[in-house]
Structure formats: C-alpha cells, structure tokens
Amino acid sequence: MNLDRKTLKGLPGAFSLGMGMIGLLLINFAIWFDTDFPGLLSPVEEIAGIFLAIVGLFMKVDKKVALAGLLVNIFLIIFVFLTLMLSWGINPKP
Amino acid sequence: MTKKDNKLHDVNFDSILNEAKQTSILNKGKRQARWRTIVITLLILLMITPVAFLSTLMYYSFGNKANDYRDVVISTFALTEPNVLIDPDKVDNVIHPFFSIDYKMDLLKTVGAERKWIGEYDTTFTINNLTKQDKRMITEKKPEIPLLENRMLFHPDAFMPYSREGWDQLEKLPEGTVSEVYFSLTDTYKPEEVKDLFNDFDIMLLWYAVDTGLDGQMKDPSGDNEGVYLPPIGYPAGMQSSPNDPFSKDESNEKQFLQELKFIQQHEELATDVARAKTLALEERIDYLDKNGIAVYGIVATGPSKELLKLRELEEIRGCRIGSIDFWNWNKESGSQ
Question: Where is each Sigma factor regulator C-terminal domain found (chain B) (predicted)?
C-alpha cells in the first residue's frame, strides 16, 4: 500500500491520539472492574504519546489530531500522578 | 464586485473538476467529518469515568473524609460491640467513580488465648451518607437490630431475665474448652476495682460495659427517640497491638474511651447507623461520664470454662451469659493480647 507524504506526516499525531485513547480505555476498565493492568500506572506510554504528539505538531499536517493526542496523554500522566498521591493519603497501611 | 471576485466568476469549475472528482472530494470530507465526530464522542465518553474517579478521590482525600469514616466505623465497633474488633490494618477500600467508597473490614473476637476471625463487615458511603452495610458473621447469628431481648450485659438497676442459666451451662461444659462469658455485676465499680476483683483468676478481661447514666432503663429518656432501646457502651480492656487501633498503648484505655466517644459524637448519625441502633444518645452519656467518671457494670471475659465457673463464688457478680465456646487454646504465650 502506498502512503502519500501527507498521510505519513499525519501518522505521529494519529498514533499519539490512538495511544491516549487506548490508555483511557484501559483506565475505564480498571475503574469499573476494579482490576489492574500491568504497566497501567507506568508513565512510559504516556511520555511516548507526548513525544509523538510533539513530532506531529511540527509536521504541520493534522495539527488538531496531534494536539488532541498531546492533551489526552498529559491528562493521563496527571491522572496517574494524582491517583497515586491521593490514594496514598486514603487508608495508608503500615 | 472586486477584481478578485470577477476573476473567480470567470473560472469554469466544471471544466477543472469533473463530477467524479467533486464527488470524491465531497465523500472524503464527509468521511473525515464522520471520523472526527466519532473520535470526539469517544474521547468525551472515555473521559467521564476518569474525571469522576479523580473528583471522588479528591473529595474523600481532602479533609481526611475517607479516613474519618473508616475510624468512625472502627471506633463504633470497639465501643458498642462487646469483644468484637475490627483489624485496622486489614481494612480494604475501593473508590468508585461518582462519589462512593466501599470498605471491607474483618471482624475479630477473642475466645481463650486466640483472636479469631468471625466475619466481615462491608459498608458503602456515598457523599456523606452510609448507603449500604452488610455484616456477615460466620460463628454466630447476631440479630440485625440490637434489642433488649438479645442484651448480654445488664446494669444493676435493670431487670435481668436470667440468673442461673449461664452458670448451669458453664458447669456442663467439658474441661478442655475455653469460653467467652458476659458477666453482669451487682454494682458499678471503678475499672481498677474490677481488675483487682478478677486478679486471682486465670482469665482474661476483654471488654468493660460502662455506666452512662441511661443503662438502668436501657432506653433513651428524652428527645425524639424517647423510649427507644439504647445499646451498651464500653471499651476494650486490653491493649491493642496495631498503631492504627483507636485504643493505642500510649494512654490508658479509660482516657481514650472518652476521647473516642467524643470523636464518634462528631459523626453521631453515622455511628448510630453503624451500631444499627436508632439512637446512641451520646450527648447525654458523655455529659454523665464527664460529671461522674467511668464506672463499670459488666465485663466480658475469656478463659478456661472451669476457671470462669469459679467466678460464681464472687458476690459481686449478678449473673452471666455465655457468648462463644472453643477448644482448648489457653496458652497465654501465644495469645494475641
């Protein structure tokens, strides 16, 4: 399949948004089913998502998608950080 | 009309873009718009739960609400359920989005020298209200609502519907057993006097029932709940091992008893729900204790059944009722106290 230059340039932003949406989906599952996914609380995926979004923003193609990816991944990092911080304050065990 | 408009007007678009190309561009635009709508809708839907979850976490964290609710439950059990404790180190909590929090707690009881798991207590709070509670006991079926007929400890001024029953049962128990027995006293005594009274016996004191001025009638004398049954109030006799326990090793249990009562008074509605009572009348009872100090009218004790039977000789004991019985485990070195 031949991908034109425009489509290729839009890929980092789309990947970033896709990763962010998968992260959101996993968090929804984890909350509703009171379960944990390995690496869910590790920020590696979100950092990669932010990096891809920044690359996407420089590509000047589908900037809105890259921006959405950036915002979603930043939200995920804030979510993970706040969840850990606030949960530690609730019912800490020795 | 400007020069530019004139120029545009002169262009024959049909000659540049044939119909097929126009349709293709239109379809591409439609597809993109449809995808954009789907992605935005999905994003909004996926954000609802995490945002609600974070808001719930913040609500319960700030102002220490989650820990206060947990502590009220633990203290209420320690103060209103004779010889039933919640292990504060094994409290599990699950936070749900939309402002509710579940607690799962283990209920423990001391029979002989062993602290045993006797059931679970699950509770759900939504915003400031206790919306669900479920107490599942494996060793005994306790009544859902505390009533006079189920009372185990009686104030000297109260009518006691039994006198010999407990002693007869203790007499018939085999020697190789340990029991948990509820003793009602003929008068009220200071906690030190109670300790001295039982000092010569090889038993362990577990819980003191304290005279709060209303225990003779066992009913709330005033207010909206006039005539409603009042559950007993007391405190554990032994020191607890966990630093998270409401009764710590740092101060005497008598002193901490009053502190804990005043703490649950701040959440009286919740404490009343947890105790499954209609009222705890904490204000009147705390006033009485502040004026008159702590006097004990009943105790819960455990030990070898035959050693407990020896207490029949004490004229200070009015009667007893047996709670739980277990196989011999009276090895104090491995005890949990």
Answer: 170-323
